[in-house]
């Protein structure tokens, strides 16, 4: 279930990235990934034995066929499409190599049965004892003693390994919830952390970007129209203060009259004074008329039909642009709402995943509590240990018994050695039975190891993720338009082995969501184009200018320059000089304001026929400026999704930890169980053969005790016939030889 949650998470995150939009860099978002501690177990010195057993079991697994992969894919991603029985059949029953290896155990069981039955029949119909004239070899005794010691060592080793393996397995079962809680805690932490990163990145980005866009849209029409008015010249004409202009001109007229009166009192004979005086007196009338005319023109322009028509046209353009701005604002609000809904769905999906995990964990806790607290579990632990340990210990005792018998017999073949030989024969039958029991238990335990390897090899121990390369998940396209996006789980796992890989990059998120798709979803260009169409539908107007206006400006400027060149300092009249300076100051102001007024009208006259073109260009420039801001935000979001948001290596670490728990924390002790029991059972089978051989060797006399008078009691093969034994006993009762010469017959 944990593995299934991990795979579902990989697919689910594609939907997470799928539903996002825009971005400025949200520096306050925490992009740190949680550290996942490795759960790879260490069993100390027994690890080597576990690895051998696991290597044998894993090596027997065939590469699953396409049907197996498809069934497993259906089981993980399409619950109910196949049953667990089908998958188990595919992944376990079809493993020919494992079945053959498993059958070897039954071959030894059958061999042990045959050996026991054959020996029993042989003993019943014939004596297992060699004929009394046979002379044994002491070297054979030493060989048997060495073999007995070797068999004892391996049997005892198997017994010890079994008890260690069972203890490790029991500890793993007892601590099962510790491992489960760690994996589920890590998975919840990674999901929560990754979801928070995505939520923070997208929320910060969209909030800031859409706030900027609303500000942009809010001033859209005003900014475009203001830019158009400025470039056309309407703003300058509208903003020109004709009242102030009239006041300035009036002040100039007053100054001119004052200077004129002062000049009437100047009677200097200085030629320069007289010339400058005449220049000034000649222009007073012209300047006064010109200023009055310009004042009237300024007042007339303010209310002229041409200017009113141009202002009306500008207002119309502004209204059209504002209409499109309102539409764009509505689109932005809709997009923002969609993003909020998407974020809510993401949060709900995260909550659902975590609730599913928590539900599984709670179920496991309940099941684990019921298991470890049940009397059946306690009885099973003790029962399995006793069923294996007691027979194995008995077998070891038989081995010691036979070893002692051989050693005693080598020293002296007396009554004790002969009595021990009978015990060795009894031990043979018991050992046969024990070896059969242990071999059957080993075969049963191997089924568990077989099943573990069948799951672990293709799922957790394939560095190429061959199984997952056959597993594809589809993500529905944005807005339901286009083909579904396909995510290959194997490629995702391979990519996420890179510590710097983000989930967005691992699933090739650009096929799911990209800058182009976000821009296309916003589709603000349509509002720009619609505004352009509305602008270009307006008629271009003109602002004609009277040629006389230019002459007024020229005359005023000429008189101003001439007045500046006619100072009265040479006249020696201070009042005239003061009045002159006042006149020049006001005249220069009137001249400057008049030029400003005329230039404003000239600009309006030149640009008014281009009003629609200018407005369209202003509209495009403003939209392009907004697009630039949006694209920069989107680019930042894409960069962060590709390099910072939700590093996916922790998912692989959790996946690996799942493999460590299943295949090593539980799997290795399971593999050790069948191997240890099988080791003890196999060597006890060899011990049974060795016990039979030892029994015959113990019954073979040394040179000092070998008999020579009863050859007729044995067949040609050296074994005594059962019927002849009875005749021999009867004849010996009637003719008892002297005790000093009688040879004791072994039984």
Automatic annotation (TrEMBL):
Highest taxon listed in the record's lineage: Eukaryota
Annotated signal peptide: 1-21
UniProt keywords, alphabetically: Membrane, Signal, Transmembrane, Transmembrane helix
Basic and acidic residues compositional bias, start-end: 718-735
Residues that span the membrane, as ranges: 99-122, 142-162, 386-410, 422-451, 672-693
Region (Disordered): 705-747
Start-end of Polar residues biased regions: 737-747
Keyword Translocase found: no
Protein name: Uncharacterized protein
């Amino acid at each position: 279930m944990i593995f299934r949650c991990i795979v579902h998470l990989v697919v689910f995150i594609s939907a997470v990235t799928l539903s996002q939009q825009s971005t400025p860099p949200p520096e306050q978002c925490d992009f740190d990934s949680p550290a996942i501690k490795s759960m790879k177990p260490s069993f100390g010195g027994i690890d080597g034995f576990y690895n051998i057993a696991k290597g044998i079991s894993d090596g027997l697994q065939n590469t699953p066929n396409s049907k197996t992969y498809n069934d497993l894919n259906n089981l993980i991603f399409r619950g109910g499409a196949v049953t667990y029985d089908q998958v188990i059949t595919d992944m376990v029953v079809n493993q020919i190599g494992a079945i053959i290896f498993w059958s070897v155990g039954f071959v030894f069981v059958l061999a042990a049965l045959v050996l026991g039955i054959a020996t029993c029949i042989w003993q019943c119909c014939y004596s297992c004892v060699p004929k009394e004239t046979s002379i044994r070899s002491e070297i054979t005794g030493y060989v048997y003693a060495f073999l007995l010691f070797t068999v004892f060592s391996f049997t005892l080793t198997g017994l010890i390994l079994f008890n260690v393996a069972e203890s490790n397995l029991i500890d793993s079962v007892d601590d099962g919830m510790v491992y489960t809680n760690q994996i589920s805690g890590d998975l919840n932490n990674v999901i929560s952390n990754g979801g928070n990163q995505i939520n923070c990145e997208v929320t910060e980005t969209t909030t800031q970007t859409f706030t900027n866009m609303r500000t942009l849209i809010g001033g859209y029409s005003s900014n475009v129209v203001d830019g158009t008015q400025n470039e056309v010249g309407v703003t300058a004409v509208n903003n020109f203060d004709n009242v102030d202009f009239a006041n300035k001109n009036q002040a100039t007229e007053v100054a001119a009259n004052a200077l004129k009166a002062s000049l009437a009192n100047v009677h200097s004979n200085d030629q320069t004074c007289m010339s400058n005086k005449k220049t000034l007196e000649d222009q007073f009338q012209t300047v006064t008329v010109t200023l009055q005319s310009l004042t009237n023109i300024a007042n007339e322009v303010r209310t002229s039909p041409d200017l009113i028509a141009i202002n009306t046209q500008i207002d119309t353009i502004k209204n059209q642009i504002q209409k499109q701005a309102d539409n764009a604002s509505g689109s932005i609000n809709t997009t923002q709402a969609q993003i909020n809904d998407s974020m809510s769905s993401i949060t709900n999906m995260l909550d659902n995943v975590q609730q599913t995990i928590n539900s599984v964990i709670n179920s496991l806790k309940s099941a684990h509590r019921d298991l470890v607290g049940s009397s059946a579990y306690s009885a099973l632990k003790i029962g399995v240990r006793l069923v294996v340990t007691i027979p194995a210990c008995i077998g070891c005792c038989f081995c010691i018994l036979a070893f002692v018998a051989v050693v005693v017999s080598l020293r002296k073949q007396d009554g004790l050695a002969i009595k021990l030989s009978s015990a060795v024969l009894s031990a043979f039958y018991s050992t046969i039975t024990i070896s059969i029991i242990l071999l059957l238990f080993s075969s049963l335990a191997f089924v568990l190891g077989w099943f573990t390897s069948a799951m672990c090899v293709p799922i957790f121990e394939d560095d190429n993720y061959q199984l997952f390369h056959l597993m594809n998940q589809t993500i529905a396209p944005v807005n339901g338009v286009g083909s579904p996006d396909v995510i290959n789980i194997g490629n995702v796992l391979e990519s996420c082995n890179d510590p710097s890989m983000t989930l967005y990059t691992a699933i090739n998120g650009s096929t799911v969501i990209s800058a182009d798709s976000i821009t296309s979803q916003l589709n603000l260009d349509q509002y720009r184009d619609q505004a352009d169409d509305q602008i270009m539908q307006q008629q271009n107007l003109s602002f004609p200018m009277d040629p006389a206006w230019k002459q007024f400006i020229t005359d005023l400027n000429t008189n101003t320059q001439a007045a500046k060149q006619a100072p009265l300092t040479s006249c020696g009249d201070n009042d005239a000089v003061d009045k002159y300076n006042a006149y020049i100051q006001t005249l220069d102001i009137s001249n400057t304001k008049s030029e400003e007024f005329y230039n404003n009208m000239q600009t309006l006259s030149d640009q008014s026929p281009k009003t629609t073109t200018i407005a369209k260009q202003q509209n495009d420039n403003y939209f392009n400026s907004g697009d630039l801001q949006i694209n920069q935000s989107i680019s930042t979001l894409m960069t962060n999704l590709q390099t910072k948001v939700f590093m996916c290596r922790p998912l692989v670490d959790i996946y690996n930890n799942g493999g460590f728990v299943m295949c090593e924390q539980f799997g290795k002790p399971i593999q050790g169980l069948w191997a240890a029991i099988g080791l003890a059972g196999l060597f006890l089978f060899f011990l049974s053969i060795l016990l039979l051989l030892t029994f015959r060797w113990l019954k073979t006399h040394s040179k000092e005790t070998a008999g020579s008078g009863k050859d007729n009691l044995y067949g040609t093969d050296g074994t005594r016939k059962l019927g002849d034994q009875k005749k021999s006993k009867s004849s010996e009762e009637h003719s008892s030889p002297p005790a000093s010469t009688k040879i004791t017959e072994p039984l």
